[in-house]
């Protein structure tokens, strides 16, 4: 029973998503209050490595109106909270296999904590994207035909 804040719907079109991980975020109070209002965007964001840590870059969490001078920077880099074993596994995949970490969902879990679903992904080429589009159109057309006939 989690409350979805933001979703990266473009990720499935641009990348082959292999495995997903749940990560916490290191946030300040005004960011959490802004997220409670349901305003955030992770469409252009990605996760990167800084030393032996993983950070979320370019995620947009707008400023909270009531926080005045104690507000946060909307597009600052935010540290992701993962277990050391998970971090090592992800760092290895990024460095050896050339994978990228793409955030797919930002949500509140059952305990009310902000969580980010990360996917280990491999980039799609243009012909793969065209294939996916053609397949999606065919599925839609199939569903339309089935609906009309039966």
List keywords for this structure.
33% strand; 7-stranded antiparallel beta sheet; Small Protein B, Chain: A; alpha+beta; 150 residues
Model description:
This protein has 150 residues and is α+β, with helices and mostly antiparallel strands. The chain has four helices and seven strands, in the order βαβαβββαββα. A seven-stranded antiparallel beta sheet has the order 1-6-7-2-5-4-3. The radius of gyration is 18 Å and the shape is globular. The two termini are 36 Å apart. The model has no long low-confidence stretch (mean pLDDT 87).
Layout of helices and strands, plus pairs?
Blueprint: E1 3-7, H1 11-14, E2 15-25, H2 29-36, E3 46-50, E4 53-57, E5 78-81, H3 84-97, E6 100-108, E7 114-123, H4 126-149
Antiparallel strand pairs: 1-6, 2-5, 2-7, 3-4, 4-5, 6-7
